[in-house]
Batch of 4 targets.
Target 1
Amino acid sequence: MSVRITNIQRFSLHDGPGIRTTVFLKGCNLRCPWCCNPENMDFNIEKYVENGLEKDFGFDISLEELEKELLKDEAFYDNGKGGVTFSGGEPLLQVEKLLPLLESLKSKNIRICFETSLSVDKKLVLIMLDYADYIYIDIKSLSNPSLIGLDLESYLYNIELVNKSTIKRENIVLRIPLNYEYTLNEDNLSNIIHLLQSYPDFNVEIFKTHNLAESKYKHLNKQFKSFKQVSDEDMEMVLNRIRKVNKNVKIISL
C-alpha cells in the first residue's frame, strides 16, 4: 500500500503542538484562490522545470518507507506532546490508505494530528476520529462556499461529528485564513462568528494569507493572484469580535 505525497517536513512548529513531522498528502477537493500549497491541489504527479532541470511535484511512497522516515524523528517528539501531522491538500482523501500506518503509530504512542477542511464524506471523518489526538479545521468561505468548492452541508455535519467525539476540546483548533478579497468581509465574518458560537470550547487561530507561493504557481502554469496584506488593525478587529463568543482565540503567523 502506498500514498501520494509532495513533502515530508521535519521539525514543524506550526502544525500542532510540540515538534512535529508533517506529511503533505497530494490531492484536494477544494480550490481556494489563496492556497499556499498549489502543488497539492491535483492528485496527479505534476512535472515542472527549475534551473533547466525537470522535477516532479509529488511521489508515491509505501507505508513501510513512510513510517521509517517518520520514526527517524521519534526522539524529537517531546515525550508524546509532539508527533506526526498529516496535512495537504486534503489528507482525509487518502486516510483509508493510511490506516495501517495510523495503527502502527498509535501502537508506538506517537500522537497524530490532522489538518483538514472537513469537506469530505463522513466515513473519512470517522476514520480520522479513531486515530487523531489533535485536529486543525479550516474555516474559510462560509458566505460563498461555491467559491472554493466547499460542501457546506457536509462541512457543518462533520464539525458536529468532531464536536461529539472523545477528542479533548483543547486539542481541536479552528483556523481562519484572512484576506480582504475573499474571507474578510462582513457577511463571511458574521457567518464565521455565528458558527463559533456553537463551539466556545474549541481553540481558534486567525492568520493572514500571504504571497509566498508565487513561484509554485508559476512552475505549475497556474494563475497567481497577489493579495494585499491584512493590516494589524484589522486583525485586532477580527480578534476582538471573535473573542466575544470564544475567548480561546489568538493571532498566529504561518
Target 2
Amino acid sequence: MPYEWINHDDTADAPTAELHLWPYRSLPRRGFVTFIAATALMILLPLLAVLGSPVLWGLLPFFILALAGIWYALQRNQRDGEILEILRIWPDRMTLAHTSRRGHHAWDANPYWVRLKIDPHNERIPNYITLKGSDREVELGAFLSDDERAILYDELDSAIRDVL
C-alpha cells in the first residue's frame, strides 16, 4: 500500500496517530534508464538499413525528437508524482499537510468536529474520501486506487475514534 501509519513514542508533543500517503511509483529510476535505453535501441534499429546514405540525416531528427518526447513525458510524470500527504491526529487537533511540486497546502481542525466521508459513487473518483472541519472540506488520497481508498477509510475511521 502506498501509505503507512507511523507509530510515535509517548512524547508530549507527538501525535496520537500519523498517516503518510504517496502515489504508487511503478517505474523506479533504474527502470527508467532501462526503458529509455531499450526504446533508443528499438528506434535506432531501423536506421541501420540506411546507414551511410543521405536518408539517414533526414530520418535521424525525427527519431531523436521521438526519443526526447518520451524522455520528457516520463520525467514530467515522475515530477508530477512527487506528492506527499501527512495526516496527524492529536486529541485536540487534526492537521493535513499536502506537499507537491505545485506547492504546500495545510488544513487543521478539531477532530471532534471533523466529519470523515466516503463517496462510493463519485463520478470523478470512486470511493472519494473527504475530511470536513473548520468550515472547509479537503480530499485525502485521491491518487490511491479505489480499493486502497476503501481500506484507508476504515482504518482512518477507527483511528479517529481511538483518539476521541
Target 3
Amino acid sequence: MVCSMTGFGSGECSFDCGKITVEIKGVNHRFLEITSHMPRVLQSLEEPLKSMLREKIKRGKIDVFITFAEKCAGNPIIKVDKDLGLSYYNSLVALAEVCGLTPPEDIQQVASFPGVICEEKSQWDFDVLWQAGLLPALTDAVSAMMQMRSAEGAHLAADIRQKLVEISNAVERIEAEAPGVVSDYQARLKERITTMLEQAGAGLVGLDDARLAAEVAIFADKCAIDEELTRLHSHIKQFDQTLAAGKNGEAIGRKLDFILQEMNRETNTIGSKTNSLVISELVIEIKSELEKVREQIQNIE
C-alpha cells in the first residue's frame, strides 16, 4: 500500500492503574521525526514508544499526545519528615534567642520548609504501564492513523498514475514529431539558401547538395533526442514500478523524488535541443504534469 505521511489516530485503554489515552498525528517531513507529549510518570516509556513507532513508520513528522488518568490520583500519600521539621524548629528557636524575639508558635511556618511535608510518589510497575496500558492504546492509535494514511496514499497513487499516462502520451507525441524536425529544417534551409542566391543575383548557381546534406547532418546530430526519449520512457516505467512497490509497505517517497528529478532533466534537454513549436509545447505540458506529480509525492512516505 502506498502511504501518505498525513494521518491521525487515537486509542485508549482502561486497566487496573487507570486509563491511558493516545492521540497521534503525522504530517510531511523529509525524514522520520517523533515528538512525544506525555505525563512525567510515563516518561521512562518514551524510548519503547519511539522504537515501536519506528517499526511502523518510515517518514513523517509524528506527534504523540498521551494522557494518564490515574485511579489513585485522588488519594495521595503524605509523608512528614519529623526529624527535619524539628531541626528547622530548633534552629528558629536559637535564632529567636539571639535576636531577642519570641520563638515561633505557628506549626505552619515549620511545615512550609522544603522537605518537611511532601507527597510520596506512587511506585509504578512500568512493565504493567507499558504492556497493559500504553502499548494497547498506542497500537490502536497507530492502526487508525495508518488506515487514514493508506486511504490517502491510494488516492495519491491513482492521481499520480493518471498523470503518468498523460506524460507518456506526450512523450509518444514528441516521438511522432521528432523525425519531421530534420526534414522540415532541411526544406527551410534549402529555401533560405535559394532566396539568398536569388537576392545576390546568382540564381543560376546551383545549390551544393553535398554541403546542404552536411549542414542537415550536423543539425540532425545536434537536435537528436532519441536517447533522451528512450531514457524518459525508462524513467516512466521505473517510476510506475516503484509506485507499485509501495503496495508491499516499502517507503518509496524519496526514490520517487529522485526518479522525478531525472525525468525533469531529460525533458529539459529535449526542450533545449528542439526548435519545433509543437515539441516545445509538449515539453511544457510534460513539465507541468511533472510539477504536479512532484507536489503529490512530497506527501508519500
Target 4
Amino acid sequence: MPTFVDLLEYIGTFAFAISGIRLACQKDFDIFGAYVVGLATAIGGGTIRDLLLGTTPFWMLQSSYMIWSGIALLFVYLFRKHLIKLNNTFFIFDTIGLALFTVVGIEKTLNMSEDYPFWVAIIMGTITGAAGGVIRDIFINEIPLIFRKEIYALACIIGGVTYYISQLLFDNLIVVQIISSASIFLTRVIAVKYEIGLPHIKGEEHE
C-alpha cells in the first residue's frame, strides 16, 4: 500500500506535469515535446534533490512517475479546450505541485538521515518544489517564475518553517504534512491575489 507521502508525490507529479504540459501547449509544442516538458516539471526538482543527497533519483526506481505524467498528458489532451479557457488552470496546478512536492522533499530528507539539520531539509524541500518549474520555464524559453515578482520559492521556505513548528505541536505526521502543504498553497494564493512580492534591485538605467 502506498504511504501518505507516496500519495502526495503522485498527486504532485500529476499536478506539476499538467502545469508544464499546459504551458507547452501554449507554445505550440507537439505531444512528445509537451510530455517532456511535463515530465521535467514533475521530476526535475526531486532529481536535483536526490543527487545532492547522494542517492539514486527516485524516478529511476519506479516507473509510476512517468506513467502519471503520461496520464496528465492525456488529461490535458482530452480537456484542452476547457483548460485553455481557464486562465487560472496553470496557477492552480502549479501551486498544488509546489505545495505537495515541498513537503515530500522535506520528508524524504529527514527520512534519509537524522544527522541533517532541519534547515537542510527546508532547502531540499524548496529545491524539490521549485526547481522543476525552473527547468520547465527554461524549456519553454521563459524567465523562470522563481525569479519574477511572484512569491514562489519563499512560499516553500514558509512551508518548511511551518512544518518545523507543526511537528513540535502535533504528534500526527499526516497533520503536520497537511498543515505545511496548506501554508504553501495559501501563501501563494494570497501573494498573487494581493500582488505581494519581493522588492526588486534596479540598476541605474531603470531608476
